[in-house]
Amino acid sequence: MAQKAEEFKKEKEIFLEHIQKSGLRRTAQRETILEVFLRTEEHLSSEDLYRIVRNEDPNVGQTTVYRTLKLLTEAGLAREVRLGDGRTYYEHHFDHEHHDHMICTECGEVIEFFSQEIEELQDAMAEKFGFKPTHHSLRILGICKNCKKKEKDLQSAAPGAQPRIRVKTTIG
Amino acid sequence: MAQKAEEFKKEKEIFLEHIQKSGLRRTAQRETILEVFLRTEEHLSSEDLYRIVRNEDPNVGQTTVYRTLKLLTEAGLAREVRLGDGRTYYEHHFDHEHHDHMICTECGEVIEFFSQEIEELQDAMAEKFGFKPTHHSLRILGICKNCKKKEKDLQSAAPGAQPRIRVKTTIG
DNA sequence: TTGATTGCAAAGCATTTGCATGCTA
DNA sequence: TAGCATGCAAATGCTTTGCAATCAA
Known about the structure:
The structure is a homodimer.
Chain A: H1 2-21, H2 28-39, E1 44-45, H3 46-56, H4 62-74, E2 78-82, E3 88-92, E4 100-104, E5 110-113, H5 116-128, E6 132-143, H6 145-157
Chain A binds a DNA duplex through α4.
């Protein structure tokens, strides 16, 4: 936990630096939003973050959260993620290894994973086409361990049960 | 070209079959939309398709194009693709190999590619987490061969030139 | 003081839905 | 004839923008 506080300090410095470099201003709202973001480890939508932030400070508007998340992304602290349900999520970027996602289409669970081999094959692929990659996104959709189990259990109990789909569309 | 006509025939059969199986109805609009879709090889948004279709038959509504693209997807003829600019594109699915995409963030060009090794590594990854994959999506963003070249040419001519970004947001 | 920042309300966009009318089976 | 399909307009959901008031530097 003490180590966590250290990390936040570093990230806050980065944020301030970015703000100063860009001729922007330090405000209470931005500080609150940054802190809540740093304190939360999951994938947050702007809406999610807004809900938590307004507990700490009801004077923060939805719009400011949107704008600040953009700012955090520019500063290199956050990264936009599309999980496939139409909205934009944000995850920590600074000091976090690059990774990809498996998304359970029943419960919405998101598993992060990383494969050096896949990364290398992608680069090799790009090179083959004379393409200079800047970043990439790999999502695997499917059923997670838990839901696979639940499905089996349900099947024996109530054969016609419908799964609860959270990610609503096929992702190309 | 004669071979093309054959292909369309097969795909039309599939569509009719799907329509009958589902208790739906064969209509002129659906036929027109299907034909235009089959005839076009690129990645089409609903809007794109709508524009072409209304040349053939101005009596087709935007809504019907949306609904029919869903239908084509259900029938297995089309596949939804998210290229990262917020809208949904469709590509041919039937008799087309699975593939992934490289997207140029300057000109918007989309390169299709396939790597058996990447596929296998993904499955291995999923298995490691007890995750049962249903489908996946891999996008590599970057600069295509052409734009890389143009960039260099421009740089020597007008050092401060701004690139035209078509894919507007970072894709997680 | 000056110009960035905020929050509200309104606008934007892609997509979906309600509903009266039109058509297929 | 029954009920699916259509197309318009209105609604939706997420995100962005305009703008007057507020606040940091």
